[in-house]
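Internal tracking record. Fields below are filled automatically when a chain is submitted to the structure queue. Please do not edit lines marked as system-generated. If the sequence contains nonstandard residues, flag them in the REMARKS field before resubmitting.
Queue: standard
Priority: normal
Entity type: single polypeptide chain
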Amino acid sequence: MLEHDGVWYLFTTGASRNERGLKQRIGLATSRDRVRFQRTELVLEADPLLYEVLGDAGAMEEHWRDPWALRDPATGLFHLLISARVRSGPPDGRGVIGHAVSTGMKGWQILAPVTTPGEFRQLEVPQLVELGGRYRVLFCIGLGDHAAARLARPGVHAECGTGWRRHPRPVPA
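SYSTEM-GENERATED OUTPUT FOLLOWS
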């Protein structure tokens, strides 16, 4: 949830019964008091040029969820981090943190992911945090989310919990 010009913006994950809940979209609800929220509109769907969508070869469901909003104080731009998957590579290693940017909470531009694919099937509930003066993108992983290529490396084993990747800046690039 993020405040802008006296309005609180709550980004949500939505799924339609028409697609049996297999296609995910990012929605938005707004509030002036943080108690009563009004659902407004669909904010964005995955860009099929950058991200895997329902109907791609082998895509049995769509991963475009868990939006996390932040504002860059230096530029005033708004950013969304999104649990997503890229279109290519081994199916068990396509998980990424997707990225979208906006100048005013509407009219979002979808950008390339902020993480590299190859390690996980999915990276859920992304967040960007500062720890000890350095920035990290945090995400949740389950036991079944590790790619075979990752598990084949010596000393690596499947575990669940919170994962992280270094990030060079306080906001996605």
